[in-house]
Amino acid sequence: QVRLVESGGGLVQAGKSLRLSCAASGSISSITVMGWYRQAPGKQRELVAETTGSSTNYAASVKGRFTISGDNAKNTVYLQMNSLKPEDTAVYYCTAWGSWGTSWGQGTQVTVSS
Q1: pLDDT 10s digits, 7-22
Q2: Under a CB-based contact definition with an 8 Å cutoff, are residues 71 and 79 in contact?
Q3: How far apart are CA 6 and CA 110, in angstroms?
Q4: Chain-centre distance of CA 69, in angstroms?
Q5: Averaged pLDDT of the chain
Q6: Looking at residue 31, what is its pLDDT?
Q7: Are 22 and 108 in contact (CB under 8 A)?
Q8: 43 class by beta-carbon count within 10 Å (0-12 exposed, 13-18 middle, 19+ buried)
Q9: Predicted local confidence at residue 68, as pLDDT
Q10: Of 14, 22, 75, which Cα lies nearest the Cα of 48?
Q11: Closest CA to 81 of 104, 64, 95, 96
Q12: C-alpha–C-alpha distance, residues 1 and 51, integer Å
């Protein structure tokens, strides 16, 4: 089992940047993929970015603006979000897939004002 704790959300103006962090604990060696999802009010949860460590995948809406990266020494995955838009406003969730199944963080709110 893996526990995930997100941090770094907040209120930011359009065009600015924000970095989210996701600290993992537990059976770290069992993780195969880590990613970020988001859910805006009234919308379904959607994939933002994911990484296997050697490859990454991004939603078309964030490609070129967001970057997912990891620090193995800190067991932490980051989501660097640049050129933020009001439509990026959502609760962002960290997730991890592995041999046990899937774990989700509690979510962190990102609000982008115009």
Answers
A1: 999 999 999 999 999 9
A2: no
A3: 12
A4: 10
A5: 96
A6: 92
A7: no
A8: exposed
A9: 97
A10: 22
A11: 64
A12: 19
Q: For 53, which DSSP code?
A: S
| CA dist., res. 71 & res. 88, Å (int) | 24
DSSP string, 34-93: EEEEEE-TTS--EEEEEE-SS-EEE-TTTTTTEEEEEEGGGTEEEEEE-S--GGG-EEEE
Backbone region of residue 38 per phi and psi (left: phi > 0; alpha: psi in -120 to 50; beta: other values):
beta
pLDDT at 72 over 90: no
**Look-up: residue for tokens 């962002």?**
92
- Predicted confidence at residue 73, as pLDDT, reads 87
For residue 81, pLDDT beyond 90: yes
Residue with tokens 């967001």: 66
Place of tokens 């020494």: 73
